[in-house]
Amino acid sequence: MDKAIRQNTKILFLLKGLLFSYIITAFILLLLSFLMLKFDLSSLVISGGINFAYILSNFLAGFYVGKKAELRKFVWGIVMGVMYFVILMLISLIMNRVSPIPLGGLLTVLIMCGLSGMLGGMIS
């Protein structure tokens, strides 16, 4: 019974971390859109800002989950990053039915999300 309760609390921590990461992502993307409105930003800066949002939000979420987990913090961090990526891609596929997403870009984002979540878990 005690093991089931601990497992449920870890899942709850993962869900809180996901919510936290998406709030951070939304804030960074709102800031980026404001900067796009005020300044003429190049596509390279916009792409870098989006990547920064992915990395920072997953790092902080991995750090949060790593603080809550007692063992294997890096595993919980990478799980957080992969869950973030999966939800992001599902929403992207639902919203963008016209053109397929390039596989190279998907793999890059998956690696960025997973490694930044893992790093956050390791540092926690």
Structure description:
There is one protein chain. With 124 residues, this protein is mainly α. It has 4 helices and no strands. It has helices spanning 2-38, 43-68, 73-95, 103-123. α3 (73-95) packs antiparallel against α4 (103-123).
Measured by DSSP, the beta-strand proportion falls in under 5%
Number of domains: 1
Structural class by sheet pairing and helices: mainly alpha
> How many beta strands in the DSSP annotation?
0
Helix content: over 70%
Q: How do the SSEs run, as a string of H and E?
A: HHHH
User: Span between N and C termini?
Assistant: 28 Å
Largest sheet: none
Number of helices: 4
Return residue spans where pLDDT drops below 50 for at least 5 consecutive residues: none
Radius of gyration: 16 Å
Overall mean pLDDT: 88
- Which outline best applies? elongated
Helix-strand blueprint:
Blueprint: H1 2-38, H2 43-68, H3 73-95, H4 103-123
Helix pairs in contact: 1-2, 1-3, 2-3, 2-4, 3-4
